[in-house]
């Protein structure tokens, strides 16, 4: 068996990949798009939640009004899932915005 030397440290990536710029202004547009999609998904989550809760009012034989609420698990679970998707979209939008604004190209130290 031949033991070949393995690249380590800076040798793992070619020079052009190591110097790839993270500060790219177009990432701000991606962040804006993700915020818009997150708002639409959040609106859908609220709509699903409200569809999953139904108020039922019945009248008893003696004339008393009985009010109760019925919960539909599929709608509530869908709303919670869409809420989780919204959270992931917002976190990624913040990450994209920080990469668009704050990351600077480092100069090499000699």
Tags for this model:
3 helices, two-stranded antiparallel ribbon, elongated, single chain, alpha+beta
Report on the structure:
This protein is an alpha+beta fold and 110 residues long. It has a domain at 35-104. The protein has helices at residues 15-18, 26-52, 73-101; strands at 53-59, 65-71. It has a two-stranded antiparallel ribbon. The longest helix has 29 residues, at 73-101. 7% of the residues are buried.
Shape: elongated
Task: Kindly report how far apart the N and C termini lie.
Answer: 39 Å
The count of helical stretches stands at 3
Structural class: alpha+beta
Sheet having the most strands: 2 strands, antiparallel
Mean pLDDT: 86
Strand content: 5-15%
Overall helicity: 40-55%
Gyration radius, to the nearest Å?
A: 27 Å
Counted beta strands: 2
Spatially, the strands of the biggest sheet line up as: 1-2
Instruction: Report the order of strands and helices.
Output: HHEEH
Low-confidence spans: pLDDT under 50, at least 5 residues? none
């Amino acid at each position: 068996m031949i033991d070949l030397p393995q690249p380590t440290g800076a040798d793992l990536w070619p020079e052009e990949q190591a110097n790839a710029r993270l500060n790219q202004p177009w990432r701000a547009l991606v962040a804006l798009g993700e915020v818009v999609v997150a708002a639409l998904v959040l609106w859908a989550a609220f709509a699903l939640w409200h569809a999953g809760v139904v108020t039922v009012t019945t009248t008893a034989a003696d004339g008393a009004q009985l009010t109760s609420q019925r919960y539909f698990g599929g709608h509530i679970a869908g709303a919670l899932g869409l809420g989780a998707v919204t959270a992931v979209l917002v976190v990624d939008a913040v990450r994209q915005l920080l990469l668009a604004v704050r990351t600077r190209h480092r100069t090499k130290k000699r």
